[in-house]
Amino acid sequence: MSDIQMLIDMGFPKEKAERALEVTNNKGVEQAMEWLLAHADEPLPPASMAAAASAAGDSSSSTAAGGATTEPSTEEGAAAAEEPVAKSLKCDECGKLFKSQEEVEFHAAKTEHSSFSESTEEKKPLTEEEKKAQLALLEEKMRRKRQEREENEKKEAMERERLRIKSGKDMLEARRKMEEQEMKKLMDQRKREKLESQQARDRVRAQIEADRAARKAKESGETTAVSPTSTAPVSSPPPAAANPTSTTTTTTPIKPAEAKSYTTAKIAIRMMDGTQLVQTFQAGEQLAAVRLFVQLKMDSVDAAFGLMTNFPKKVFTAEEYEMPLDKLGLVPNAVLIVTKAP
């Protein structure tokens, strides 16, 4: 809000507000308000000079017209002297006196009063106590407006902060949902690959069983073809358990120690910024699953990087990403280092 508009809102006429700002060199509302209170009863200099000039012009024209005009009669002069002179404007609804038309218009706009008339009463100038009281009232209005503006600014700042926090939470929630969707896709892909691998093993096992059955059928067919040529039944050799000497000479073969099979692989991943991630994968999962896990944890999903082991030092190739973790020797525990793409 401009200074002149603020002075008008306080009840000062527009012309006087402009004059006060002009005299005080636009140094602020307070100085202009002090000038207005100090010169409340003084007329505006430009208006008085213009009135004097117009009056002088009228008198000169009347003098030039000389013989055309006639002097008023004594009776008319006496009647004019007896007529009351309007010294102010009065509001018929509240009885308040005004000096100028601008004050009347401002009062009408502020109170919605519409009945005004001329009055012979003269608006008395403000006393020092009234000036101080009006100044204190204006200062109180300014203080309230300043307080309301500060409260509104504080509310707007709180609302902006609330919207910023809400947008941040929404972004975190959207990112979390995206990671969940990516992990779900990864799990579905792992399940699908595991099912395809199981189906492939079942097909190989069925093929092996079919080959074994075919060999047994072939062997049984050869034995039945040879048996009719012999005249005596071929006696089968006695079982080894019936020979007492065989029990002492034969030795029981030593079974080799079975290698322990692991179903999970605990992988510690050292990122390029020095942080370390630990995740457990299935032993049959491909190394590509570890790479996808690292991509989801990085800021840029499209960032190019590689994986390597330190002991022994080995950088995995593109073909090895398609191999399972147990085939790469990364079970039950392993440490992988994220490196820049070659």
UniProtKB/TrEMBL annotation:
Which superkingdom? Eukaryota
Keyword match Metal-binding: yes
Q: Which GO terms describe its molecular function?
A: K48-linked polyubiquitin modification-dependent protein binding; zinc ion binding
Q: Extract the CDD domains matched here.
A: UBA_UBXN1 (cd14302)
Enumerate the spans annotated as UBA domain. 1-39
Fetch the SMART domains from UniProt. Answer: UBA, UBX
Query: What PROSITE patterns does this protein's entry cite?
Result: UBA, UBX, ZINC_FINGER_C2H2_1, ZINC_FINGER_C2H2_2
By what name is this protein known?
A: UBX domain-containing protein
